[in-house]
Design brief:
- The protein has 231 residues and is an alpha+beta fold.
- Helices cover 44% and strands 19% of the residues.
- Strands 1-2-3-4-5 form a 5-stranded antiparallel sheet.
């Protein structure tokens, strides 16, 4: 009987060892397959994210207005008061033959009705807005979401605006004496976006020489005249 018990124990140990080995082998194979799948899919994911970002940039800076790789020509800048974030923001620079064309700023409107509103703001070298798009928000559907291009063309009202057009007093909703429309039943959201875009233009004009350093003055004047005629 003792011999039988020993044999049973040995058989149980053997089965446990085999089961453990099979489990480890299964885990190893599964991990290998996951690594293999990720290694093949990761380039497609990265490329898809790159194309989404590029489309967003092209919505605020016309793609035929520059010739450099805008995704690689970037710098990090920080100004909590004007950019709405305690973190550094990414600035994308558009150029043609090393001449400055425009910059796209990722800014935050921190005082939306339901929290932060993330914006992408395009500004040409002379300080005129070339386009604005909402990247992320939590505003009320049917009211505050009118800031989205798919909901209305309100966001396009910033195109061509600058510090002098309409001037400081004009960078407000009409209810506050400014030149921008508000939404019926939702004034807080447009106020927040208008303020953020205005501050983005202020930031650009304040930091133009840092965003586009060492630019030939004569070329800048020629470019400014050209951009003024096109807008």
């Amino acid at each position: 009987m003792v011999r039988d018990q020993v044999m049973i124990k040995n058989e149980v140990k053997k089965n446990i060892f085999i089961a453990g080995g099979l489990l480890a082998l299964t885990a190893l194979i599964g991990t290998g397959l996951m690594v293999l799948v990720n290694s093949h899919s990761n380039p497609y994911i990265v490329e898809n994210e790159r194309q989404v970002l590029l489309r967003s940039l092209h919505s605020v800076i016309p793609p035929d207005s520059y010739s450099n790789n805008i995704l690689q020509d970037t710098l990090l800048m920080k100004d909590q008061q004007l950019l709405g974030s305690i973190d550094e923001i990414l600035v994308y620079r558009a150029k043609t033959d090393s001449k400055p064309i425009a910059a796209a700023l990722t800014v935050i409107a921190p005082n939306g009705y339901n929290g932060d509103i993330s914006l992408l703001v395009g500004i040409n070298y002379t300080g005129q807005v070339t386009g604005v798009r909402v990247v992320k928000h939590r505003e009320t559907p049917g009211l505050g979401d009118g800031i989205e291009i798919r909901r209305s063309n309100w966001i396009e009202s910033f195109t061509g605006k600058s510090l002098n057009n309409p001037g400081d007093s004009g960078w407000k909703v009409k209810r506050d004496g400014g030149e921008f429309d508000q939404f019926t039943g939702a004034t807080i959201t447009p106020r927040a976006v208008i303020s953020a875009v205005h501050k983005a233009v202020l930031f650009f004009n304040k930091n133009r020489s840092l965003i586009f350093p060492a630019t030939n003055a004569a070329d800048i004047n020629k470019l400014s005249d050209k951009l003024d005629r096109e807008l």
